[in-house]
């Protein structure tokens, strides 16, 4: 088999350590990828004076598939979020955030299996109409939803449900108040639902969905929603399975896909060998599924699940007392 080239952005803070862990695990699982390492974020800013150097953008475009560590967006004016920039630039319209219970975590539930499909380019994060009045007393921003954008993401969610043999898609909205934007999203969701009679369709107002997710998470299967709601709901879902250390995310467009941890660069624990690498390992598993490599994906999932369930060399956030490298060794031994 010809080896496939993948762009790797180690990232900032805990990024390089947890990405290194994921790459070692991929290698042990027999995945013969060729990697092109490039920088973004604070690391790139320090080296090149740019948060997103052209070489990084070229690598992402040329290789199509990227595995990325978390990036630090410097605080202050003039810096737009790098993640938002990447999503816009490469048309990564679907943000796919699965959460699944692993036995042995500190989570409150043990039966969670939910995928949030978040629209990644429109809504409150479209960056349109950002204004603050001169005296600082008023601020405004625009939210824009398009029929094409809503159709594309809702179809993506139903196709995913079909492909993965899932039973139900719940459209989450706030159409009772945000009548124009959320209203259009809901209207489109209802139309598309009719094209998928084999999948159960449900709709729920976002505030009620938050409560139901906490009280009866087993009622949910695939969630599809707009950008801001998806951002918040997917973190809530991460909380159901033991926190951000267990939550991966895929940003998928027509020609490119970027797989990453949902959490940030965790500057409070950076360089201390304390980070749980599971989120990037799970992102690498998502990447393997995207590349239609189910066999190593399943083997890595089993090894990871066994380490967490047995508590063998787990990190502090999982109730253990070990570091990133010991945890990685425990997964590798099982492979
Ligand atoms: P964070 O997600 O980095 O950290 C929040 C808390 O979770 C911290 O206490 C941290 O120690 C802990 N944590 C996060 N990942 C962990 C892991 N793998 N193992 C163990 N504990 C973990 O959020 P923050 O502190 O608000 O943000 C730090 C920086 O990250 C900011 O610059 C922000 O812009 C950036 N950020 C980047 C991304 C991304 O690149 N996708 C996402 C969110 C935030």
TrEMBL record:
GO terms for molecular function: isocitrate dehydrogenase (NAD+) activity; magnesium ion binding; NAD binding. Keywords: Oxidoreductase. Its EC number is 1.1.1.41. The keyword Oxidoreductase applies. It holds the Pfam family Iso_dh. SUPFAM superfamilies: Isocitrate/Isopropylmalate dehydrogenase-like. One of its GO terms (biological process) is tricarboxylic acid cycle. Coiled coil: none annotated. InterPro entries: IsoCit/isopropylmalate_DH_CS (IPR019818), IsoPropMal-DH-like_dom (IPR024084). It comes from the Bacteria. The keyword Ubl conjugation does not apply. Residues 5-331 form the Isopropylmalate dehydrogenase-like domain. Signal peptide: none annotated. Belongs to the isocitrate and isopropylmalate dehydrogenases family. NCBIfam families: PRK08997.1. This is Isocitrate dehydrogenase. It comes from Idiomarina fontislapidosi.
């Amino acid at each position: 088999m010809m080896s496939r080239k993948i762009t790797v952005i180690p990232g900032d803070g805990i990024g390089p350590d947890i990405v290194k862990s994921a790459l070692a695990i991929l290698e042990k699982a027999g995945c013969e990828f060729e990697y092109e390492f490039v920088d973004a974020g604070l690391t790139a800013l320090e080296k090149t004076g740019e948060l997103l150097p052209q070489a990084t953008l070229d690598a992402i475009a040329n290789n199509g598939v990227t595995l990325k560590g978390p990036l630090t967006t410097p605080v202050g004016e003039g810096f737009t979020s790098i993640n938002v920039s990447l999503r816009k630039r490469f048309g990564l319209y679907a943000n796919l955030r699965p959460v699944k219970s692993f036995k042995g975590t500190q989570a409150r539930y043990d039966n969670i299996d939910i995928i949030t499909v978040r629209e990644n380019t429109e809504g409150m994060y479209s960056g349109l109409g950002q204004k603050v009045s001169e005296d600082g007393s008023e601020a405004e921003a625009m939210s824009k939803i398009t029929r094409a954008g809503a159709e594309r993401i809702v179809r993506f969610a139903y196709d995913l449900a079909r492909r993965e043999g899932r039973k139900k898609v719940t459209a989450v909205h706030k159409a009772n108040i945000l009548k124009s934007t959320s209203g259009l999203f809901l209207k489109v969701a209802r139309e598309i639902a009719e094209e998928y009679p084999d999948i159960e369709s449900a709709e729920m107002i976002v505030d009620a969905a938050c409560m139901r997710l906490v009280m009866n998470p087993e009622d949910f299967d695939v969630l599809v929603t707009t950008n801001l709601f998806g951002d918040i709901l997917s973190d809530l879902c991460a909380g159901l399975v033991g926190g951000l250390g267990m939550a991966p995310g895929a940003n998928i467009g027509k020609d490119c896909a970027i797989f990453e941890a949902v959490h940030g660069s965790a500057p409070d624990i950076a360089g201390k060998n304390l980070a749980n690498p599971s989120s990037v390992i799970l992102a690498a598993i998502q990447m393997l599924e995207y590349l239609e490599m189910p066999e190593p994906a399943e083997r890595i999932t089993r090894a990871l699940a066994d380490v967490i369930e047995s508590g063998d060399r787990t990190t502090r956030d999982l109730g253990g007392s070990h570091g990133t490298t010991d945890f990685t060794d425990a997964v590798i031994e099982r492979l």
